[in-house]
Amino acid sequence: MTVFKSVLLVLTLITANAAFGHAVVTHNSLKLKPVPVNLASEVELSFNSKVELDLSEVFLVSAGDKMQTITATPGEKPGQVLLHLPALEPGEYAIKLKIFAADGHLSEDLLRFFVKSTK
Ligand SMILES: [Cu+2]
Questions:
Q1: Residue 15 pLDDT more than 70?
Q2: Gap from CA of 51 to ligand 1 centroid (Å)
Q3: What is the 102 CA–ligand 1 centroid distance (Å)?
Q4: By three-state DSSP, how is residue 30 classified?
Q5: 22-115 has which CATH code?
Q6: What is the rounded (10 degree) CA torsion for 93, 57, 39, 113?
Q7: Where are the domains of the chain?
Q8: Quick one: which of 29, 57, 71, 88 could link to 84 by a disulfide (CB 3.0–4.6 Å)?
């Protein structure tokens, strides 16, 4: 009976941990590497868990709340995602993320950034 109880306890703990599997951005290359002007580029994101890219949606939001879908591909490491940005004029933008974690939970996030002319 004691063994059975401890097995149950371990199972409960594992399930409780899995509930924290929501995909949260832990690394974001926008902070380190500015998005270039008028040149297609990539943004690298890392999540704290595996993400289901087939179910996830990523949008580029530009002035006037215009949204366009952007392509997201898996990176080399687990939880890593590459976003493929089109060539952008200087301005204020945001990346809207609707990301499904491997546990099926949806998280939404908005990453704001500027494209600045260096001249
Ligand atoms: Cu979750």
A1: no
A2: 11
A3: 8
A4: helix
A5: 2.60.40.1220
A6: 30
A7: 22-115
A8: 71
Q: H or E segment at 18?
A: helix 2-18
The pTM of the full predicted model, rounded to 2 decimals, is: 0.79
What distance in angstroms lies between residue 49's CA and the mean position of ligand 1's atoms?
A: 9
Residue 7 has pLDDT above 70, yes or no: no
Query: What's the start-to-end Cα distance of the chain, in Å?
Result: 74
Residues within 5 Å of ion ligand 1, judged at the Cβ atom: 21-22, 103, 105
Q: What separation in Å is there between the alpha carbon of 82 and the centre of ligand 1?
A: 21
Burial of 95 (0-12, 13-18, 19+ CB in 10 A): buried
The number of residues in the chain equals 119
What CA–CA distance (Å, rounded) separates 88 from 30? 14
From ligand 1's centre to the CA of 4, what distance in Å?
A: 27
β 25-28/71-74 pair status = unpaired
